[in-house]
Design goal:
Elements (H helix, E strand, L loop, with lengths): L2 H8 L5 H15 L7 E4 L4 H13 L4 E6 L6 H9 L5 E5 L3 H15 L4 H18 L3 E4 L3 H4 L16 H8 L11 H4 L3 E4 L8 H10 L23 H13 L3 H12 L4 H11 L8 H8 L3 H11 L5 E3 L4 E2 L2 E2 L17 E3 L1 H8 L16
Parallel strand pairs: 1-2, 2-3, 4-5
Antiparallel strand pairs: 6-9, 7-8
Helix pairs in contact: 3-10, 5-15, 12-13
Length: about 375
Amino acid sequence: MCNACQHNLEKEAINWRERQDYFKTVCDKYRRKGEPDCIVPWSGGKDSIYVAYKMRDEFGMTPLLVTVLPHLETEIGQWNRKNTCPGFEKMEITLKEDKYRSLAKKYFIEQGRPKHPWETAISAVVINQAWKMKIPFIIYGEEGEQEYGGSDSQKTQWQYPVDKDYLMKFYWQDNLDWDIPPDNELDRIFFTQYSRFENWSPSKHADFAINKGMRSKPVRSVGTFTMWSQVSDYMQDLHSYLMMLKFGFGRCTADVAIAIREGWKSRSEGLELIEAYDGEFPNQLLDQYLEYFKMGYSVFCDVLATHANKELLEIAGPILKDDHAIPQNWEGAKTSHGTSHIWYLQAWAAKHRRKGTKNELKSPERFDVR
């Protein structure tokens, strides 16, 4: 059992009232009148909207909503950012385009993590602003390692600030023009996540945010069945596809796992959704990615192939672009790994994944061996 599912079971024994009472004492310590007393890192998405209203309306705080603008922002993401949470004080930080793009390309090539510089920035920039503005309290949304799977290092640390060494190791890399506060200044900032103090529920947050005016997508996101999660930027679609390449499961598997833990999808329903959607590539965004990375198609395919788990996956072919086979004289039509940016589960892996579903004995076309 993964640690996220284990954590979900353990939540039943957590005394959430005790944790809420403790969190109120933290708010009492840092509350100030007439000026921001905490920072909520904010995207205009469901979770940050929920936390922002919680901090203001339930705990009587005056949050400053700080947004690090993503590159390749979606139209819905931009609308939500500009139009949700009226009446809150907001601050938007723009990353240096050339430097950020260069780092995104570097991490895409070397680690298959094109969003990593932005993920770094949303911690580094926020801490830098808290330090410069003398705001002593930062409240993020979820502790993702516990909620979605990862390290257990922070499991018992709910009463304490996020560990500084952990923060530096994972979220403060590559100088993005924001200074690291001196240790004595950093120690004065209480940096935590709200999921430590309330049973975290993405679906509840989505309902809340939509009632507050947040827009969801009119259709499901690429690679999954949800319409209201991680819709702020187009790089997320590539990030999710790379997850599929590395580990053999993608965005739909992650969303299904959350839905099953929350109790609004059954395992059998989840398997059918995974079979239908997991591992889709956002073909409509291919040209946008090539332009953003200033990268030819063959190089792009080679980068994907470098990160693909070839024990589980195989490359597809022939490749398609705008519903037509790419001609042989098209730049990069053939690469050292094959002819496509599309990877499928190998037949045995696809069959194993279908085990227990209505499609167990079927071989859907998108998983056919090419």
